[in-house]
Amino acid sequence: MPVGLWRSNGYSHNAFFSESFMDECAHVAGIDPLDYRRALLRDSPRHLAVLDRVAALAGWDDPLPAGRGRGIAIERAFYSIVAQEGEVTVSEEGEVTVDRVTCAADVGTVINPAQVIAQMEGSICWGLTTALMSANTLDRGAMRETNLHDFPVQRLHNAPDVHVALPDSDAPPGGAGEPGVIPVAPALADAIFAATGRRLRRLQLAVTQPVGVRRTRSILPAAEEA
Question: Are strands 95-106 and 161-165 parallel, antiparallel or unpaired?
Fold first, then answer.
């Protein structure tokens, strides 16, 4: 995978690999992905508190209809711990719709909760953009994308529901602008696997196609590319 700059730096693509692999291990072991992570993090109360909060907020054990799936991911970065549950619907044609992203963030002592929640909401939208919609490509040493007409971003009119919770924490303040991006891609990849049985190991997760002037849609790549 070509490595370049991305908001949240190396945590972003590293967490995509590690948390996707964690989900894969859980399924091979026949253990619920949430329970698998909880067992591995049993000696880390901050991680467990964040996992439990996001699972409760998302209704992790609630059944979903066919074609829908949920995934979960967690990462510690910039002295903060963020867990996210992503919920997707995948049509028979392979079109991916992100229905909801649920987030629990322990960023330590919170001075301005509204600001932290806004940072997480914006980070999730950026994570959706980079996971599903956009990429930077080099063509003979120059960047091919030049502006928003060929670098689509997540817009408000078709954004998923986003829910953010801030568990009580007495830890020193940590980062809030970067950590919210990190779990988005692996949570979505795990959700797509839950919905389709296909394990995607490459970013972008889907191929973006224009629909009108402002809208785009994301289609899963052909099976041989997964």
Answer: parallel
